Amino acid sequence: MKIILTKDVDSLGKKGDCVDVSRGFGRNYLIPKELAVIATDKNMSLVEREKGIADLREKKKIREAKELSKKLKKVEPTIVKPVGENKKLFGTVTTADIAEALMKEGLEVDKKKIIIDEPIKTLGIYNISVKLHPEVDGKFKIWVVEQ
After folding, report:
1. What is the DSSP letter of 120?
2. What are the angstrom distances between the C-alpha of 58 and each of 26, 51, 71?
3. Does the global pTM surpass 0.70?
4. Over pLDDT 70: what percentage of the chain?
5. CA-CA distance, 66 to 132, in Å (whole number)?
6. Where do the domains of the chain lie, and which CATH numbers do they carry?
7. What is the β-pairing status of strands 78-81 and 136-146?
8. Which residue of 11, 20, 32, 75 has the fewest CB atoms within a 10 Å radius of its CB?
9. Residue 85 pLDDT more than 90?
């Protein structure tokens, strides 16, 4: 029996895949649990259309991430922190601090996507990476200065 998966099913396939399963497995388990539908011409065309729409959405996300990456290269936000002896910071500069500094520059970046290679505990200029999309990375510099 040929079916089209409507959700990812372990050891069987991903959403949108057309797979061949036994009649009992398809009719008694997959279809009642809405994990699959019977592979008819109508259902096949619906799946193809949904895949096309999903591809367009993904391309739009990639395009937006690339635009944001270009904007990030142009900014160098400044983070002001109190310091102690030897110009060491009280605490560290966190991803939340960096996200807030970017917000002041007019760029909205989720703090979970910001990657800090090593803890920022002293004054200076640091290179920061951002994972905007699985295929797109952004890089920019921050200035950590004394309050």
Report:
1. E
2. 31, 10, 20
3. yes
4. 100
5. 8
6. 2-62 (3.40.5.10), 65-146 (3.10.430.100)
7. parallel
8. 11
9. no
Q: What is the pLDDT, as a whole number, of residue 98?
A: 94
Burial per residue of 30-61, b for 16 or more beta-carbon CB atoms within 10 angstroms, e otherwise: bbeeebbbebeeebeeebeeeeeeeeeeeeee
Contacting residues for 35 by C-beta, under 8 A, at least 6 apart:
5, 6, 7, 9, 29
Task: Kindly tell me the sign of the dihedral angle through the C-alpha atoms of 101, 104, 105, 110.
Answer: positive
Query: Tokens at residue 106, please?
Result: 């007019």
Closest by CA position to 99, among listed 127, 132, 77:
77
- The length of the chain is 147
| CA atoms of 122 and 82, how far apart (whole Å) | 10
Tokens 């391309």, located at residue: 59
Q: Please write the tens of the pLDDT for every residue from 125-144.
A: 999 999 999 999 999 999 99
What pairs with residue 3 in β-bridges?
19, 38
Q: What is the pLDDT of residues 37-55, one digit of tens each?
A: 999 999 999 989 988 999 9
